[in-house]
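Why does residue order matter? Because the sequence determines the fold. Keep that principle in mind as you read this record.
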Amino acid sequence: MKINRLILLFVTIALISFTACNTVSSKKGTITHTVFFKLKHPQGSEAEKVFLEKAVALKSISTVMKMTCVKEIGKKNDFDWGLTMQFKNQTDYDTYSNHPDHVTFVENVWKKEVADFMEIDYIDAP
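Structure:
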């Protein structure tokens, strides 16, 4: 009888642990999409200005909750600019990613004018 209780205790603990881990990994919530990049254009050039205007125009896509364009001031990386966007959930993020305006921007502007980038997408930790 004691062995059965011990087994039941271990199984219960394992199930609680598994459920807790699963809950964290499948959490739904606000997604922050960030991309930091270096352009092929000289800093301060008209081409740089036009690129940034086109990038910021993507905030007009209806599922973008908030968008910020930032200028890098640190010396710990080689990126010059960043874009940060927030989306209500994964569905809204996917809608943005597949939106014709975004796809056109990536194909016709981003791929031609960006020298290097790093993209990070995340949700708030529990």
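The chain has a mean pLDDT of 84.
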